[in-house]
Amino acid sequence: MIPGFRRVASTLMTALLSLAAVTPLLPVSAQQADDGRKAFRVCRDPNNLPFQNAKGEGFEDRIAELFAADLGVKVETFDYPARFNFIRNTLRFKLPGDDFPCDIVMDVPAGFSQGTASTKPYYRSTYALVVPRGKTLAGVTTVEQFLALPQEKLAKLKIGVIDKSPASDWLAKRGLLDIGVPYRVLVADPEQTSGGIVEADLIAGKLDAAIVWGPIAGYYARHHPEADLLVIPMQSERNIRFDYEIAMAVRIADKAWLKTVDGLIERNKTKIDAILADYRVPLLEALPPAAASDDD
Q: What is residue 37's DSSP assignment?
């Protein structure tokens, strides 16, 4: 889910498989056979790029494939739109006599708990100001330059933001809330994605800039080179947190699986970083353990 405000939820989710611990001398394939799971089962939103989609084109899809290859199994997905009650209807959904449909959600804020356990973080990113070069804000390359614009020019701008997000709080703190164009984080239509604010309106010229979660900003800047979008990472400040560490979620009872996924994250870190870089995710250094658990 898009982090930055715990009172709102959005997308960013996928799933894996599970393994039980056996003697360390056995190969991974033997561990998988003893555990009885023969697939890397993902809870997935089928329409949520850059994170996931039904064609497996998101970076979380690629990380799931990476982990499955590490374990020597195939990827299976359980698709459900990441709107209301995604966790309850995927990771925690179970009819009497049936198995759970999937084993892992690929993207939750670190420390997330909704009847779930979260893994160690696998990346840290931040919200970003997205500006089309050569248009209304031509020459603006930093947040400081944006804020230093003449008041009369600032007053005429239209800045797309997710309502009740750090971006709207940031504008309000500076007396600029009137130039913000709010977008709902949760919409009933599963065809609308969290990237629509950039792809549908910013690129189309309906907005002068947008402040969105960094992975969304980076992906659409890469995906639409003709728009010549500049991605400017935002820095957290007192009472407004823009940067978040992202982890994965498993069921609380799946302690052995949690340990397995933590191991996958740790030993595949270089490959994970390469996938994220390919999708132009703005990456920040991991926080120290104490700082990572603090809420500003």
A: -
- CA gap 282, 16 in Å, rounded: 24
User: Among 263, 259, 239, 241, which residue's Cα sits nearest to residue 250?
Assistant: 259
Model confidence over 125-161: pLDDT tens digits? 999 999 999 899 999 999 999 999 999 999 999 999 9
| Cα-based torsion angle of the residue sequence 84, 85, 86, 91 in order, rounded to the nearest 10 degrees | 180
Six-digit token string for 159: 């800045």
d(CA 110, CA 120): 7
Model-level pTM? 0.84
Backbone CA torsion sign across 168, 174, 209, 231: negative
CB neighbours of residue 105 within 10 Å: 32
Instruction: Give the tens place of pLDDT for each residue, 148-194.
Output: 999 999 999 999 998 888 999 999 999 999 999 998 776 666 676 66
Please work out, in degrees rounded to the nearest 5, the angle formed at the alpha carbon of residue 47 by the alpha carbons of 220 and 40.
110
Helix (H) or strand (E) holding 52: strand 52-53
